[in-house]
Write a structure and sequence with these properties.
Shape of chain B: elongated
Strand order of the largest sheet of chain A: 1-4-5-9-8-7-6
Strand order of the largest sheet of chain B: 29-32-33-37-36-35-34
Oligomer: heterodimer
Radius of gyration of chain A: 43 Å
Distance between the termini of chain A: 90 Å
Number of strands of chain A: 9
Helix content of chain B: 25-40%
Structural class of chain B: alpha+beta
Number of helices of chain A: 11
Largest interface: A-B, 90 and 93 residues
Number of helices of chain B: 18
CATH architecture of the largest domain in chain B: 3-Layer(bba) Sandwich
Number of domains of chain B: 6
Structural class of chain A: alpha+beta
Number of strands of chain B: 41
Radius of gyration of chain B: 42 Å
CATH superfamily of the largest domain in chain A: Bira Bifunctional Protein, Domain 2
Helix content of chain A: 40-55%
Strand content of chain B: 25-35%
Bound molecules: zinc ion
CATH topology of the largest domain in chain A: BirA Bifunctional Protein, domain 2
Largest sheet of chain A: 7 strands, mixed
């Protein structure tokens, strides 16, 4: 009798558990059947009338039914929890393409970028980075670089003269003299910075531009070591091996002085409009430091020898990015600057 | 400087290089060439032709001419020249010639077929004479015009000749070409043409420093007329205008030997004596160009007994100029001190072909060569001309030729490649240095006079001579031996770099602005003109001052970019350049950032403040008196660790449409304060307690001030204080606001009891009430 009652209760309860549509309905079933005053409890109350053997047997059945139903309940409950979680996750859809809040990154000026890149290269080679003032004395800008007053070489650089007799430096070369005094031989230094020439501005001329001066003083500095250094530098700048040539160039602070040309990167030598059909592009002046300049820097030219070069950063930036109008660089126009 | 290929070929025997090849050789061995252009290409198609008949064409200003071109036959040519008449021999340009970009062929003019054309000297590119067709005198029809041949002109960059006085004439360049190619150099000047008899002209030089040599020769029976066409073409090719045979000869010698010359009309001189002296104060002088100059003793003049007849080394005088009636001339070939000529020419803003050469330090030996060459040419262009006496030649004692000791081992070390002593000797000798063996491996090198004035004085100069002649391409790169050590640090650059990286990461784009500012802009920004360094020679008036603030530049950036963009952020790092008592300027690095919003209100200001807090953690701002360009209620000083390091403000609405805020930081001031020393604090082990406080204050009370007052009452247990919000409006009384903070208090050694926390809170509340604030509790 109890056997049957128990069996049908278990069966009907299992059906009701499976049929429950919500977690609340399931809870109602649990309370009704397994609760402290539930059906199973009612059944166990009736066990007192049974023989000890019967009681033991029914007790086991009762426990088994209880365990089974509890497992079924738990499993069904987990289904509801899973479904609820899935529903929540699904509801939490977001548009991953929406722009992120917060500031958009700005950008560094292309001249800053190339200058930093070169500073890093040189620093990794043990080269000191030095600074010099933009307002220089006539002496530092010219005389100390072996360009005395009334030397026609002064015409090579149209100069901004200041009312106080100083000049806006026409090149970064004055830092050579400052560097020699500061570091002493042997030395390796560069000095990037802003320089000025009194020139009308047009698409290819600027009165304000950027140079990087370089200098090495050592015991065995020669044209050959200068070439080595220049090629190393250019390989890094252009990211590939470049063919160079030296030809005579006159700069009073070097002797001998050179113009360093690179083989045209556009046509590779046969000639094109970029290289004016010569196959070569003039890139930087360089040379062995004039003994007078070494002396001005307090270095004995009989013991030491040096080379120096001047790299036009403005020109390099224009070459690298294909900029056709130099005026963009100091226009402050964000439509231009944001491209870098 | 223009070089005629034909001219060079006349001076270098057996020159085989083509014009293009010659240009390449000059470029890699000597000086930079800007290009090579054909000159007078058409001349190979021009022959002499006799006009047999010439008749007017009715209703036209042209004439119909029948010409005889010898072996090339008879042709009908339509010609517009007034001098086209029977009997003359002129230049006939054959059909199929390209002339000045025009194709000459057989064309119909006035219904007559014209074969080719009869040409003026201007049309032939010989001079500027366009009055009529050339008249050639006695020349066989059909023959080429004498010594008029197509040429090429090589343009050499003047800057690359700055140190080479000898290359300002064709013969100097020919000397280089001969050394480069191994061909033979010819000498155009025959000094033996100069008579050795005394000169009737007395030359006296006041200062032999300023005029190391003055040579002169007197001529008579002179005929002034146009030069032969070949000579005119030569001058034209190198950019000199033909004038008359005498002036042309002086220019020809200058272009050939680099020696400027001048011819005076001897009959217009007041004396047979020439004085080279400093000008008198306010002495006036009318030059060949028609200008009258008032001189000072700083300028050197050539004078006769009456006054200045030439500005030494620069320009001749109008009064003694060669004219059609000239029959006697005094030919000057002199040498002047380079710096003196340069000063005179730049003071008078008068640069001439002569001054350009003299300022490069010409060779005094060259004056006599110039005279010798001129004699030969004058005899050709002015038949019957006679020399009167010999050479007047006043000169400083000649300087001994410089001798340079050149050690082979030193030379090899400088070049960085081995080289045989014999090769060094050959190279130097080809360049006309004298080379003697001094010791084992040591040469004594004597510098030729034309290289000794300025160009070559030390052994380093000889490295260039040898290097360029062996070819720099023969030097292989060699890795230098360098001691390796970390380079000297440059903290300022590191600082700049960190600031730039930060600004860019926070959304700011870097701009570069000029260092110049106009007086007007400076005034607009309340920057007194006299505080600036002035540019003595500005390009234009609006670039007359050096900037003492980066703000005007940034303002321009804001104004310009606001035309295209509704919001943007930009910054610049650059130098303010201030006057000061030291020898140079006081250059102060600044970072200036700007934030723009067309439709914003307080957004830009607080965004700029956010950037300040990124760069200077813990910085404070304090209201400041606004400057002209600043919003009067939105201007602040930026303080970092108690020191003023910059300014934060919004632009005055008169300056900007929309809202633009600016952060201006003095990087030098930031550096002076130095980095924050960091020290580890143990992490608190006991929990902290938090509570909120609201302060009712006047509407314009400063939150920063209220906060620091709270802090001062909170005592040592205060762990942190954070601004939460401020509120105005009901139910608060009009003109007041409520400011809320969250405070956190804690002790290092225990958990604070709730009575202790309440005690701190009460202390603050009482303290704030004591200051007159209302507290919401
Ligand atoms: Zn090319």
């Amino acid at each position: 009798m109890l056997d049957q009652q128990l069996e049908s209760l278990a069966a009907s309860t299992r059906d009701r558990i499976l049929a429950a549509a919500t977690s609340d309905q399931l809870e109602a079933v649990r309370v009704e059947v397994l609760g402290r005053k539930g059906t199973l409890a009612e059944i166990s109350k009736g066990m007192g009338k049974l023989t000890p053997d019967e009681r033991k047997r029914i007790g086991q059945l009762l426990n088994a039914a209880k365990t089974n139903l509890e497992a079924a309940l738990e499993s069904r409950q987990k289904q509801f929890a899973d479904a609820a979680l899935n529903a929540r996750l699904e509801a939490e859809w977001i548009d991953v393409t929406l722009p992120a809040p917060g500031p958009r990154p700005g950008s560094l000026h292309p001249l800053t970028q190339i200058q930093q890149e070169l500073e890093d290269l040189f620093t990794s080679m043990g080269v000191a980075v030095l600074d010099g003032p933009e307002v220089e004395s006539e002496y530092n800008n010219f005389d100390a670089l072996n360009i005395p007053p009334d030397h026609p070489a002064r015409d090579m650089q149209d100069t901004f003269w200041l009312a106080d007799g100083n000049v806006l430096r026409t090149h970064t070369s004055p830092v050579q003299v400052r560097g020699m005094a500061k570091l002493g031989p042997p030395l390796l230094m560069i000095a990037p910075g802003r320089v000025f020439r009194n020139e009308e501005v047009d698409a290819s001329h600027e009165h304000t531009f950027y140079q990087l001066e370089g200098m090495m003083v050592g015991r065995d500095v020669s044209i050959a070591t200068m070439l080595y250094f220049m090629k190393l530098l250019l390989r890094h700048i252009f990211g590939r091996e470049v063919t160079v040539r030296l030809r005579p160039g006159f700069f009073p602070f070097v002797e001998p002085g050179f113009e360093l040309d690179i083989q045209c990167l556009i046509c590779g030598g046969p000639g094109c409009p970029v290289c004016k059909h010569s196959g070569w592009v003039e890139l930087m002046p360089c040379g062995l430091v004039h003994p007078n300049v070494l002396r001005m820097g307090g270095i004995d030219p009989d013991e030491w020898s040096g080379f120096a070069f001047g790299l036009g950063l403005t020109r390099l930036v224009m070459m690298r990015y294909g900029i056709d109008d130099i005026r963009h660089l100091q226009s402050g126009d964000l439509r231009f600057l944001r491209q870098f | 400087m223009k070089f005629s290929y034909n001219w060079m070929a006349e001076l270098v025997s057996g020159l085989e290089a083509t014009p293009q090849e010659l240009m390449r050789l000059i470029t890699i061995k000597t000086a930079e060439c800007d290009g090579v252009e054909p000159f007078g290409e058409h001349l190979s198609n021009v022959v002499a032709a006799r006009v047999l008949e010439a008749e007017d064409i009715p209703g036209s200003h042209n004439r119909k001419a029948l010409i005889d071109a010898g072996a090339l036959g008879r042709h009908t040519v339509v010609c517009g020249a007034p001098n086209c008449r029977a009997g003359i021999t002129t230049a006939w340009v054959q059909p199929g010639t390209s002339l000045g970009g025009k194709q000459i062929g057989r064309r119909m003019f006035d219904a007559i077929e014209s074969a080719g054309m009869l040409a003026s000297a201007a049309e032939l590119g010989i001079n500027k004479d366009n009055e009529g067709i050339v008249e050639l005198g006695d020349l066989a029809p059909g023959t080429p015009l004498p010594r008029l041949t197509p040429d090429h002109v090589i343009e050499v960059d003047n800057k690359s000749l700055t140190h080479r006085p000898d290359l300002w004439g064709h013969h100097g360049m020919a000397r280089e070409v001969a050394a480069i190619t191994g061909a033979k150099l010819l000498e155009p000047a025959n000094v033996s043409l100069i008579p050795t008899t005394p000169s009737p002209v007395a030359v006296s030089i006041e200062d032999l420093q300023l005029c190391p040599r003055y040579s002169a020769l007197l001529f008579e029976n002179v005929t002034v007329q146009p030069s032969p066409l070949w000579l005119q073409q030569r001058l034209q090719a190198v950019g000199l205008n033909p004038i008359n045979n005498i002036v042309d000869v002086t220019n020809f010698v200058m272009a050939e030997l680099g020696q400027p010359m001048h011819a005076f009309d001897a009959d217009k001189l007041a004396s047979p004596a020439i004085y080279v002296r400093n000008a008198h104060q306010d002495e006036t002088f009318t030059a060949l160009n028609g200008e009258t100059y008032t001189l000072t003793p700083a300028s050197l003049v050539i004078a006769d007994a009456k006054g200045a007849i030439a500005l030494a080394g620069v320009i001749g005088g109008m009064d003694s100029a060669i004219g059609d009636g000239t029959t006697r001339l005094l030919l000057e070939s002199a040498n002047f001190h380079a710096a003196s000529i340069r000063r005179t020419s730049s003071r008078l803003k008068l640069r001439t072909d002569a001054s350009m050469r003299f300022e490069k330090s010409q060779d005094p030996v060259n004056t006599v060569r110039g005279i010798a060459r001129a004699i030969e040419l004058l005899q050709e262009v002015s038949p019957g001309i006679r020399m009167v006496g010999g050479l007047a030649d006043a000169a400083a004692p000649s300087k001994p030729a410089p001798v340079i000791e050149l050690r082979m081992d030193w030379l090899i070390r400088k070049l960085g490649r081995p080289i045989e002593a014999s090769q060094v000797r050959n190279i130097l000798e080809a360049l006309r240095f004298e080379v003697k063996d001094a010791n084992e491996g040591v040469f004594e090198v004597t510098v030729p006079s034309w290289r000794a004035t300025k160009d070559i004085s030390i052994k380093d100069d000889l490295v260039e001579e040898v290097g360029r002649m062996i070819g720099y391409a023969t030097i292989d790169p060699v890795a230098p031996l360098v001691p390796t050590h970390p380079p000297a640090d440059n903290p300022r650059r590191r600082h700049f770099r960190a600031l730039r990286a930060l600004a860019a990461a926070e959304g700011y784009t870097e701009v570069y602005n000029y260092s110049f500012v106009s007086e007007e802009t400076a005034q607009r920004f309340g920057l007194p003109g006299e505080a600036h360094i002035k540019v003595a020679n500005p390009i234009s008036a609006d670039q007359g001052l050096l900037r003492i603030s980066l703000v005007p530049g940034i303002w321009r950036n804001v104004t310009e970019n606001s035309k295209y963009l509704d919001t943007f952020q930009l910054f610049e790092i650059g130098h303010e350049i201030h006057r000061h008592d030291g020898p140079l300027a006081n250059e102060v690095p600044h970072l200036v950032a700007a934030v723009y919003e067309r439709h914003g209100n307080t957004g830009p200001f607080y965004e700029a403040k956010r950037l300040a807090s990124c760069m200077l953690p813990g910085c404070e701002t304090r209201p400041a008196t606004a400057q002209l360009h600043e919003h009067p209620s939105r201007a602040a000083e930026v303080l970092w660790r108690g020191q003023t390091v910059g300014r934060l403000f919004e632009f005055h609405p008169n300056f900007v449409t929309g809202r633009a805020a600016v952060l201006d930081l003095n990087i030098a001031a930031m550096e002076a304060i130095g980095p924050v020393e960091k020290r580890y604090q143990p992490i608190r082990r006991f929990p902290s307690s938090e509570f909120d406080l609201s302060v009712i204050s006047g509407k314009r009370a400063l939150v920063g001030e209220i906060e620091s007052q709270i802090v001062s009452f909170a005592g040592a247990m205060l762990e942190s204080i954070a601004f939460l919000r401020q509120y105005e409006g009901a139910p608060l009384p009009e003109g007041s606001k409520s400011v809320s903070f969250q405070l956190s208090v804690a002790a290092r050694d225990r958990t604070l009891a709730s009575e202790e926390v309440a005690g701190i809170r009460d202390t603050i509340i009482n303290g704030m009430r004591g200051l007159g604030y209302d507290m919401r509790v």
